[in-house]
C-alpha cells in the first residue's frame, strides 16, 4: 500500500458513520415506489438535464465543467505539447494521456488523495473511449493531456467524464472526428434506470423481486459516425438485456447531443473577437 | 501487451485471410487453439492450475487465509486478485514494465467476479462480522502469445475448482471468547461450487470480421477487441471494449451472439466430479485439433486431484 508521506494521517481505525446507519429503514421507504427518487421514470430514456460550460480555467488550453443532477465534474486539457519519451510510434501520431481523479470529499466515504486502482482503471477506460474520436495523426511527436476531476459523485461518473473531456478537447481546439458522449444505465430485473444516481447505482433502491439481471453498463458513443468507442459493463445480465441496454444508451447519447453542441457553439462565440459593425 | 511488429504486407495477408474465414494457422474465425489444463501442481497452495493455450502459459495459485470481513457485508468472504506479468514472458515486462498490464488484468477480474452468483461468498463466512475466508487468487503469466484473458479465466476456474478450504470449528470457552480450531485431518475440507464461475471470451475485430483467440500477429492487425465474460447459463457478467479503435454497434451485437458458442466449449472442459466421463466425447467433437490421448491423460490428472476429497 503506498503511503503518502506529505499528509498527516488520522487514526487508522477511523470509519464513516454511514456504516452504522440502520439500513433496513432506508430500504423500506424507497422500495415500494415505481418512480425514481428524483421524479424520473423507470424504463424510459430519461437522462438528467445537464449544465455545461466551457472555458472556465484560464491557464488550460481548453476546459469544461459539467453538472448532471448532483454529479459535478471538471476537465481541463493541456497540449499539444512536446512529448518526453521518444518512441517510434510518436513520430507518426500523437499521444493522448488521461487522468481521472476523485476529490476526497466527492463520495459518501472519504477517499484518499493517492490514486487507487479504481481511478487508474477509470483513466484507462476514459483513454480508450476518447482515442477514436481525436485525430492524433495530425499531432505527431506531441502529447495531449486530459485531466478530469470529480467534484461530486452522484452516479454515472465515467459517462459524464467522457462527455466533459470531449467538450474540453473541442474547447482546446484539438481536431476531432466527432464528439464522444457517454451514457450510463443500470439494469434492475425487468426495468432499467438510465443515468443512475449514486444510490441507484449501488443498489440501495433494490426492488424486492429482482434477483436476476442486475448490472450496470456505460457506453461511449460518437453520434455522427455511429460508432461505439467505449463499452463497459458490470454485474450480471442476459444477452438480450445487454443488447437492449446498449441501444438504450445510444438513444440517451442522441438526446444529449444537441445540448452539448449548443453549449460549444456559445463558448466559441464568446471567444471570438467582437465584430466591428 | 507484448507486441510484435507486423509489416503492411503481412497485415493485408491476415486481413484477407480472415475475410475468407481462414487464419494463418489454418483455424476458422471461431476456433480455439489447443488447450491443456492441469490442476493441483503447486503443493503449497490450497488450489492451483496451469493452462496452456497455444504458446500462452498461465499459472494460478489460490491461497485461503482467514481475515476480517468487509464492514458493508459482514456475512461474506471475498476474493482478491493479483496478476503478475513475469519478466520471463517478454523483456518488455522487466522491472515495472508489466505493472500496467497486470493492473488492467486484475481490475477486469474484479469486475468479472463482482456479482452475487459467480462464487458463493456466504459459504466463505466463518463467523459473522469477525472471521471469514479470504481467497487470494494470484495469477502468474509465464508465456505470452495473445489471448491472455481467456487463458487466465479458465485457469482461475480450474484453480477454484481445485481449491480445498479446511473446515473450521468455532468453540466458545468459559469467558465468552471464541476459539478457532482447524481439523487435523488434511482431507477434511470444503470445496467451492464453481458452476457459476464465468469464463472470458475475447473477440478481436480484424477488418470487418471478428476472430476468437487471436495470436499476437492478429492482435497487431486489429484496432479494437471486446472482452465478454459469460457463465454456463449464458448470463453476461462483464463486457469491456479494449483498444484504441471504435466499434460499430451492429458488430457488437454480432459478437455477443458468437460468444455463446465459445463459452459452451469452455464450460465443458472444466469438469464437475460427476460429469468426467461425458466430457471426453463432447470436447473431442468440438475441437478438431486435440489428440485424444493427450486429453485423456489431462483428465486423469484432474481425476486424481479430485479423488482426494472423496
From TrEMBL, chain A:
GO terms for cellular component: cytoplasmic exosome (RNase complex); nuclear exosome (RNase complex); nucleolus
Signal peptide bounds: none
Cellular compartments annotated: Cytoplasm; Nucleus, Nucleolus
Pfam families hit by this protein: RNase_PH
Major location category of this protein: cytoplasm
Domain of life: Eukaryota
GO MF entry, a single one: RNA binding
Domain (Exoribonuclease phosphorolytic) ranges: 47-175
Alphabetical GO biological process terms: nuclear mRNA surveillance; poly(A)-dependent snoRNA 3'-end processing; rRNA catabolic process; rRNA processing; U4 snRNA 3'-end processing
Keyword DNA-binding on entry: no
Keywords linked to the UniProt accession: Cytoplasm, Exosome, Nucleus, RNA-binding, rRNA processing
CDD domains: RNase_PH_MTR3
Quaternary structure annotation from Swiss-Prot or TrEMBL: Component of the RNA exosome complex.
Family: Belongs to the RNase PH family.
Alphabetical list of PANTHER family matching this protein: EXOSOME COMPLEX COMPONENT (PTHR11953), EXOSOME COMPLEX COMPONENT MTR3 (PTHR11953:SF2)
Function of the molecule: Non-catalytic component of the RNA exosome complex which has 3'->5' exoribonuclease activity and participates in a multitude of cellular RNA processing and degradation events.
Name of this protein: Exosome complex component MTR3
Naturally occurring in which organism (per UniProt): Oncorhynchus kisutch
Gene field: EXOSC6
TrEMBL record, chain B:
Presence of keyword Transport: no
Predominant cellular place of this UniProt entry's protein: cytoplasm
Keywords tagged on the record: Acetylation, Cytoplasm, Exosome, Nucleus, RNA-binding, rRNA processing
Subcellular location: Cytoplasm; Nucleus, Nucleolus
GO cellular component terms given for this protein: cytoplasmic exosome (RNase complex); nuclear exosome (RNase complex); nucleolus
GO terms (BP aspect): exonucleolytic trimming to generate mature 3'-end of 5.8S rRNA from tricistronic rRNA transcript (SSU-rRNA, 5.8S rRNA, LSU-rRNA); nuclear mRNA surveillance; nuclear polyadenylation-dependent rRNA catabolic process; rRNA catabolic process; TRAMP-dependent tRNA surveillance pathway; U1 snRNA 3'-end processing; U4 snRNA 3'-end processing; U5 snRNA 3'-end processing
InterPro entries: ExoRNase_PH_dom1, ExoRNase_PH_dom2, ExoRNase_PH_dom2_sf, Exosome_comp_Rrp42_subfam, PNPase/RNase_PH_dom_sf, Ribosomal_Su5_D2-typ_SF
Keyword Membrane included in the entry's annotation: no
Gene3D superfamilies on file: GHMP Kinase, N-terminal domain
Domain Exoribonuclease phosphorolytic: 32-166, 196-257
Molecular function GO labels: mRNA 3'-UTR AU-rich region binding
PANTHER family, A to Z: EXOSOME COMPLEX COMPONENT RRP42, EXOSOME COMPLEX EXONUCLEASE RIBOSOMAL RNA PROCESSING PROTEIN
Subunit description: Component of the RNA exosome core complex (Exo-9), composed of EXOSC1, EXOSC2, EXOSC3, EXOSC4, EXOSC5, EXOSC6, EXOSC7, EXOSC8 and EXOSC9; within the complex interacts with EXOSC2 and EXOSC4. The catalytically inactive RNA exosome core complex (Exo-9) associates with the catalytic subunit EXOSC10/RRP6. Exo-9 may associate with DIS3 to form the nucleolar exosome complex, or DIS3L to form the cytoplasmic exosome complex. Exo-9 is formed by a hexameric base ring consisting of the heterodimers EXOSC4-EXOSC9, EXOSC5-EXOSC8 and EXOSC6-EXOSC7, and a cap ring consisting of EXOSC1, EXOSC2 and EXOSC3.
Protein name (Swiss-Prot/TrEMBL): Exosome component 7
Provenance organism: Oncorhynchus kisutch
Amino acid at each position: 500500500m503506498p503511503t503518502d508521506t506529505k499528509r498527516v494521517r488520522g487514526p487508522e481505525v477511523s470509519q464513516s458513520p454511514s456504516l452504522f446507519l440502520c439500513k433496513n429503514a432506508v430500504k423500506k421507504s424507497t422500495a415500494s415506489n415505481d418512480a425514481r427518487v428524483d421524479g424520473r421514470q423507470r424504463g424510459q430514456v430519461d437522462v438528467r438535464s445537464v449544465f455545461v460550460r466551457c472555458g472556465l480555467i484560464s491557464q488550460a488550453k481548453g476546459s469544461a465543467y459539467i453538472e448532471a443532477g448532483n454529479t459535478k465534474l471538471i476537465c481541463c486539457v493541456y497540449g499539444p505539447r512536446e512529448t518526453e519519451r521518444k518512441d517510434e510510434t510518436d513520430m507518426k501520431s500523437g499521444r493522448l494521456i488521461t487522468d481521472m481523479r476523485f476529490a476526497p470529499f466527492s463520495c459518501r466515504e472519504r477517499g484518499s488523495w493517492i490514486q487507487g486502482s479504481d481511478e487508474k482503471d477509470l483513466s484507462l477506460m476514459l483513454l480508450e473511449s476518447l482515442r477514436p474520436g481525436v485525430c492524433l495523426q495530425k499531432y505527431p511527436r506531441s502529447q495531449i493531456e486530459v485531466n478530469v476531476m470529480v467534484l461530486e459523485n452522484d452516479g454515472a461518473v465515467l459517462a459524464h467524464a467522457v462527455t466533459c473531456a470531449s467538450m474540453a478537447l473541442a474547447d482546446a481546439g484539438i481536431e476531432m472526428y466527432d464528439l464522444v458522449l457517454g451514457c450510463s444505465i443500470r439494469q434492475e430485473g425487468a426495468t432499467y434506470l438510465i443515468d443512475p444516481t449514486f444510490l441507484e447505482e449501488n443498489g440501495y433502491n433494490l426492488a424486492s423481486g429482482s434477483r436476476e439481471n442486475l448490472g450496470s453498463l456505460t457506453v461511449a458513443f460518437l453520434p455522427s459516425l455511429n460508432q461505439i468507442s467505449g463499452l463497459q459493463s458490470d454485474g450480471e445480465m442476459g444477452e438480450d438485456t445487454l443488447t437492449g441496454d446498449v441501444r438504450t444508451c445510444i438513444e440517451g447519447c442522441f438526446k444529449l447531443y444537441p445540448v452539448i453542441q449548443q453549449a460549444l457553439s456559445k463558448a466559441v462565440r464568446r471567444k471570438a473577437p467582437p465584430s466591428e459593425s | 501487451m507484448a507486441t510484435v511488429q507486423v509489416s503492411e504486407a503481412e497485415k493485408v495477408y491476415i486481413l484477407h485471410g480472415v475475410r475468407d474465414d481462414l487464419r494463418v494457422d489454418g483455424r476458422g474465425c471461431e476456433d480455439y487453439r489447443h488447450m491443456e489444463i492441469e490442476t493441483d501442481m503447486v503443493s503449497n497452495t490450497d488450489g492451483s492450475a496451469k493452462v496452456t493455450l497455444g504458446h500462452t502459459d498461465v499459472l494460478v495459485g489460490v491461497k485461503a487465509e482467514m481475515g476480517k470481513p468487509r464492514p458493508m457485508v459482514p456475512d461474506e468472504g471475498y476474493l482478491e486478485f493479483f496478476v503478475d506479468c513475469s519478466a520471463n514472458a517478454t523483456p518488455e515486462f522487466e522491472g515495472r514494465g508489466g505493472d500496467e498490464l497486470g493492473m488492467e488484468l486484475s481490475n477486469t477480474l474484479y469486475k468479472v467476479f463482482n456479482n452475487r452468483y459467480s462464487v458463493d461468498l456466504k459459504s466463505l463466512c466463518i463467523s459473522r462480522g469477525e472471521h471469514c475466508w479470504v481467497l487470494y487468487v494470484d495469477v502468474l503469466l509465464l508465456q505470452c502469445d495473445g489471448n491472455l484473458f481467456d487463458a487466465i479465466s479458465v485457469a482461475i476456474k480450474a484453480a477454484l475448482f481445485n481449491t480445498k478450504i479446511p473446515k473450521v470449528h468455532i468453540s466458545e470457552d468459559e469467558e465468552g471468547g471464541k476459539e478457532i480450531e482447524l481439523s487435523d485431518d488434511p482431507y477434511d475440507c470444503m470445496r467451492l461450487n464453481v458452476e457459476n464461475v464465468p469464463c472470458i471470451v475475447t473477440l478481436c475485430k480484424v477488418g470487418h470480421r471478428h476472430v476468437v483467440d487471436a495470436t499476437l500477429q492478429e492482435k497487431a492487425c486489429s484496432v479494437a477487441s471486446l472482452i465478454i465474460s459469460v457463465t454456463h447459463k449464458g448470463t453476461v457478467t462483464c463486457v469491456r471494449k479494449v483498444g484504441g479503435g471504435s466499434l460499430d454497434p451492429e458488430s457488437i451485437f454480432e459478437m455477443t451472439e458468437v460468444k455463446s458458442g465459445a463459452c459452451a466449449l469452455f464450460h465443458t472442459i472444466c469438469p464437475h466430479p460427476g460429469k468426467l466421463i461425458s466430457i471426453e466425447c463432447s470436447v473431442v467433437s468440438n475441437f478438431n485439433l486435440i489428440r485424444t490421448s493427450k486429453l485423456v491423460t489431462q483428465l486423469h490428472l484432474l481425476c486424481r486431484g479430485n479423488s482426494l476429497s472423496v
